[in-house]
Specification:
The protein has helices at 15-48, 57-93, 101-109. The chain is mainly alpha-helical. Keywords: Membrane, Transmembrane, Transmembrane helix.
Length: 110
C-alpha cells in the first residue's frame, strides 16, 4: 500500500527549517512588547493616583509603581510566553504531532 506523503510548504522546502524558530521567536517578541505595555500601564496608573497612596509618600509610590510594573511583566512572561513558545516550537518540530488532517493543512499554509 502506498504511504501518504506530506506535501511541502507553499513557501518552499527551506521554510520548514526556518519556521521552527521564527514562529516561537515572533510570538515571544510580540508578547514581550504587549507585556511591556501592560507593565508601563500599571506603573502609570499607580503614579497618577498618588493622592490615594499619600501614606507612602512620593518616593514610596514610585517604588511601588516600578515594582508593580516589573512584577506584571515577569508574571505575564513566565505564565504565558514561555510555555506557549515551547509548545509552538514542538508543534513545528515534529512532523505530525496530533495525527490529524487539520494539522497537515495548517502546517502546509504556515
Amino acid at each position: 500500500m502506498e504511504e501518504k506523503r506530506t506535501p511541502p510548504s507553499i513557501w518552499g522546502p527551506w521554510w520548514a527549517t526556518i519556521r521552527k524558530w521564527l514562529y516561537p521567536a515572533w510570538l515571544l517578541y510580540e508578547t514581550f512588547i504587549r507585556f511591556y505595555g501592560y507593565s508601563s500601564a500599571v506603573q502609570i496608573y499607580l503614579t497618577t493616583h498618588l493622592e490615594r497612596l499619600a501614606f507612602m509618600g512620593q518616593r514610596g509610590t514610585q517604588v511601588l509603581a516600578t515594582f508593580g510594573g516589573v512584577i506584571t511583566f515577569v508574571v505575564c512572561t513566565i505564565s504565558l510566553s514561555l510555555p506557549l513558545c515551547f509548545i509552538c516550537y514542538h508543534f513545528f518540530l515534529q512532523n505530525n504531532l496530533t495525527h490529524t488532517l487539520f494539522e497537515k493543512k495548517l502546517k502546509f499554509l504556515l
